[in-house]
Amino acid sequence: MDAGMRTVWSVFKPRIGFAIMLCALAGLAATPGASLPAWKVAVLAVAVFLSSASAGAFNQVVERELDRLMARTRKRPFATGAFTSVRGWYAAILGLLALSVGAAAWALNEFAALYTFLGAFFYGVVYTVWLKRRTWLNIVIGGLAGSFAVLAGAAAAGAELAREPLILALVLFLWTPPHFWALAMAFRDDYAAAGVPMLPVVAGDATASWAILAHAVALALLALVPGFMGLGWIYMLGAALGGALFVGRCLALVRAPGRAAALRAFHASLVQLTLLLGATILDGSLG
Questions:
Q1: What is the separation, in whole angstroms, between the first and last Cα of the chain?
Q2: Do 231 and 243 contact (CB within 8 A), yes or no?
Q3: What does the alpha-carbon distance between residue 221 and residue 240 come to, in Å, rounded to a whole number?
Q4: What is the tens place of the pLDDT at every residue in 48-104?
């Protein structure tokens, strides 16, 4: 992939899209008795990925001025001026979202399509436009984007949502705030300079670290519940190991709040999510 294509690709935040896609596949895998043809599973994965990609691109277009104020984001193509055709990008983003939602409705059902749309809407509009610059609750509510991906996967198997994917969706809802608060603590000066009221900016590192730990403990414990409801030992192992790692890093953060500990907690949250989703998908495929 040449430099130009890599730049275009980066606009869609593909790493986030891949994680959101795994959330949808985990929601399907966590649904008891779920069975879809391989092509429908592929449509689910692609639709959710494209929906997330559309929201990621929308985020970068809308926040191009904000991104210029933060060292972490000032090299993004809209912030640098590498891309300037805002109207054309809005049309492409809308078309991509329509394609993803339409594909989900055609291959799966209207509920899967609705949740696919809501995931993009909550990240692109609710979080980015409505909440990010207004309240420290921005990522708490905006975190529903990952939860809706889980529900899209579960709905693909049928309109009635089972308990296991519902709990997994709640786990994702609890995971998002500490993940982003740890990142915001590590880059607190960036967020403060840009006027973004992330929790570490408005409440300080000490208070934020306790909030991160509380969320980590709650989601680690809740993540174990589906294992007692029927998901297998692979799921339980992934949930337990990931939860223990994340809680351990958050305890270290409470003891010594700061950039280094915050980055370790942030990376631990990524490991936890990977273990949780990977174990869910593997458990479902073997079961």
A1: 38
A2: no
A3: 8
A4: 999 999 999 999 999 999 989 898 888 899 888 888 878 889 999 999 999 999 999
151 and 26 Cβ atoms separated by less than 8 Å: no
Integer Cα distance of 207 and 229 in angstroms: 35
pLDDT digits (tens, 9 = 90+) for 75-89: 899 888 888 878 889
How far apart, in whole angstroms, are the C-alpha atoms of residue 138 and residue 235?
30
Does residue 75 sit in helix, strand or coil?
A: coil
Amino acid at 40: K
pTM of the predicted model as reported, rounded to 2 decimal places: 0.93
Three-class SS state of 287: coil
CA angle 132, 133, 136 (to 5 degrees): 65
User: Do residues 156 and 40 make contact, with C-beta atoms less than 8 angstroms apart?
Assistant: yes
Q: Whole-angstrom Cα distance, residue 35 to residue 28?
A: 9
All residues at 6 or more sequence positions from 228 whose CB lies less than 8 Å from its CB, including other chains: none
